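Q: Please design a sequence for this.
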């Protein structure tokens, strides 16, 4: 089985490369890992050409424009990477008989309903980033249909490498603790941190089991960004990454304005997808402990 991976240099892409199985669905797996230097997702024609050249069995699109706030100033680029590229990849996949896994986000929802979002609910993104990802979802499903395409939504992704909330909080815990200052973190947004460990495992399960349609995977439990920051401090000390943690002060979204509005409640209903993929959910605190064990001091 030949899998064409995009976004291999990102935090999810690196975990996918690190965890690639030797065999999937009873076949040896050949991974064609491409980063930005090999495949620029802002170039739809390059996406089509890559699929036509490699003729993979599956495309795993883990690449994305993820700068949520900057997307408000760069809507065209966000749409090219998150909307046009997935459609181009899917159309090329349809032409060569491939299947596709498109990684998506909780940002396709507006976060106003107050209970977990089901996979079949209508999307209602708040900003450019969410709208561009929703466009990518639609493009892939329109080009390939739910039998040959899987959209895998997830939330609050972090891992031991790359740029993410967890690694940023470790740095801020260190500097704020040294300065004796509190660390203010938003407490009125609720979701679930999801590790790249869990997400990569789910991606390989989708391909190995040939799962299609819209699936949703996040780690178990729920948290605010404040809860997550507190846990990063506590477990960071336990892991030997911090001498001590800073005092975390809960703040409101109004106290920390950003260019892009974010969904205030974005829990994803994941139980059905876990069953479909024959995986067991792991609580986000346990996954955080596992991620911190892999962070370089």
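A: Design:
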């Amino acid at each position: 089985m030949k899998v064409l991976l995009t976004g291999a240099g990102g935090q999810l892409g690196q975990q996918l490369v690190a965890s690639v199985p030797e065999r999937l669905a009873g076949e040896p797996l050949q991974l064609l890992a491409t980063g930005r230097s090999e495949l620029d997702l802002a170039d739809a024609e390059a996406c089509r050409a890559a699929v036509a050249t490699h003729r993979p069995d599956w495309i795993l699109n883990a690449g994305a424009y993820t700068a949520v706030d900057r997307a408000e100033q760069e809507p065209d680029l966000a749409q090219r990477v998150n909307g046009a590229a997935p459609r181009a990849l899917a159309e090329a996949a349809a032409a060569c008989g491939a299947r596709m896994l498109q990684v998506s986000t909780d940002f396709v929802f507006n976060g106003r309903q107050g209970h977990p979002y089901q996979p079949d609910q209508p999307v209602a993104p708040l900003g450019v980033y969410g709208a561009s990802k929703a466009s990518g979802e639609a493009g892939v499903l329109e080009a390939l249909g739910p039998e040959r395409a899987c959209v895998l939504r997830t939330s609050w992704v972090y891992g031991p490498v790359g740029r993410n909330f967890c690694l940023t909080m470790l740095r801020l815990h260190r500097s704020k603790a040294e300065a004796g200052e509190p660390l203010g973190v938003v407490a009125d947004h609720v979701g679930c941190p999801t590790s790249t460990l869990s997400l990569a495992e789910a991606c390989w399960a989708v391909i190995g089991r040939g799962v299609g349609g819209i699936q949703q995977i996040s780690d178990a439990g729920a948290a605010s960004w404040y809860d997550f920051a507190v846990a990063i401090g506590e477990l960071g000390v336990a892991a030997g990454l911090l001498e001590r943690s800073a005092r975390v002060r809960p703040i409101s979204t109004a106290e920390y304005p950003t260019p892009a509005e974010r969904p205030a409640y974005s829990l994803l209903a994941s139980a059905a997808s876990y069953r479909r993929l024959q995986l067991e959910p792991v609580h986000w605190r346990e996954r955080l402990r596992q991620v911190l064990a892999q962070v370089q001091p």
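Q: Thanks. Anything notable?
A: The two ends are 37 Å apart (CA to CA). The first strand starts at residue 2 and ends at 6.
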